[in-house]
Amino acid sequence: MKQDSAETLAIQALGWIAADDDIFTTFLSASGAAVADLRALASDPAFLAAVLDFLLQDDKWVQGFAAAAGISPELPIQAAAVLAGPGAAHWT
What is the pLDDT of residues 67-84, one digit of tens each? Predict the structure, then answer.
């Protein structure tokens, strides 16, 4: 997976997270991000990696996002690895 595809997938995941009030509240609390800052943060690969890392914390979230996006549940894992960069420890 290429960097731009990983970023696009992470932005889609952020949108999916934001659409669920409970998950979104948990995400904002965990990330320390403010709603007003999300647009600017969405262009930061490190933040997008954090979005995917958050999503990957719960298998139900991964499955729900994958079903909604029409993708394989393995793609968020691959995208997180790409965004984390070389040498980062990720389970694959």
Answer: 999 999 999 999 999 998
